[in-house]
Design goal:
Blueprint lengths: L1 E7 L7 H12 L3 E7 L6 H7 L4 E4 L4 H7 L2 E2 L3 H4 L4 E5 L2 E5 L2 H8 L8 E5 L3 H12 L3 E6 L6 H5 L3 E4 L10 E4 L14 H8 L4 E4 L7 H8 L3 E3 L2 H16 L5 H12 L2
Parallel strand pairs: 1-2, 1-3, 4-6, 7-8, 7-10, 8-9, 10-11, 11-12
Antiparallel strand pairs: 3-5, 5-6
Length: 263
């Protein structure tokens, strides 16, 4: 049986195994997907190979380490400098980022989006920002500190720290930080969000499975809201296609959605 895994710290909360295993079951694929708690991200390639994993997903905080350790990085991940998928290709570790296309697929339900305010500057933010830029959608990144913004500035993406932020009109506000995952915090100062929400129609949170304080405030201000479930689903489907080396149909996607929901 082929072994697949998700690396993270923490990883106990991950619903990826129930989603991926539902896909394997639907296809009668001889694979099993489990969780792997990894403390030290710099050991990720060695750990992946030593355990004879055929494929892996990578979640926070290891996406940059996974990029740095891969033998080969393909696609948009080369620019993002963060990966969330590993494939064992004849002993070589091949890396991809499925967060970017997964996010774009997830926001299709909002309709036409022309401008986005993106909160956070981690690996997920990098993927989302470049995906939006490649789709000719105007994106502005807002992060607590200036230090992490160089990546975005080097890519020609408008970036601010909390201290120098100048709000304009946005269709969509996205939280890519972990605020609200294990706590009841907002991703930034409430006054900043309220200003951004004045013109916005939609709010998206990469955290899934709950209405975070960020989404609750957006809903209170009349925005259409969405959590990260569809992003998790669609990035998972793309990873699943890399794992199984085949395109999958709607039946597999729906099986994986049900698995994600625990149905």
């Amino acid at each position: 049986m082929e072994k697949f895994v998700i690396f993270g710290n923490p990883v106990a909360h991950s619903k990826s195994p129930q989603m991926q295993n539902a896909g394997f079951e639907n296809l009668n694929y001889n694979g099993n997907y489990d969780k792997h708690h990894l403390e030290d991200g710099s050991t990720i390639k060695q750990t992946f190979l030593e355990n004879s994993y055929e494929g892996a997903n990578i979640t926070v905080p290891h996406k940059e380490h996974a990029f740095a350790n891969a033998d080969e990085v393909r696609g948009l991940a080369q620019k993002i400098h963060a990966v969330n998928t590993y494939i064992n290709e004849n002993g070589k570790v091949i890396a991809y980022n499925t967060d970017a296309p997964g996010f774009l697929k997830a926001i299709e339900s909002f309709g036409k989006v022309k401008s986005v305010l993106l909160l956070g500057a981690g690996g997920t933010a990098k993927a989302i920002a470049l995906a939006l830029q490649e789709s000719n959608i105007d994106v502005t990144v807002l992060n607590r500190s200036e230090g992490k913004l160089d990546f975005f500035k080097n890519e020609g993406i408008t970036s601010y720290s909390w201290d120098n932020f100048e709000a304009k009109e946005y269709d969509l506000v996205v939280n890519s930080t972990s605020a609200g995952l294990k706590d009841e915090y907002l991703p930034c100062d409430k006054a900043i969000l309220e200003e951004a929400f004045k013109s916005a129609k939609y709010a998206f949170d990469c955290v899934y499975g709950k209405v975070t304080p960020f989404l609750a405030l957006a809903q209170e201000k009349g925005l259409e809201i969405k959590d990260g479930e569809d992003m998790l689903l669609f990035q998972g489907v793309l990873a699943f296609e890399y794992f199984t080396k085949q395109k999958v149909g709607d039946d597999v996607v729906e099986a994986m959605r049900k698995g994600l929901k625990g149905e």
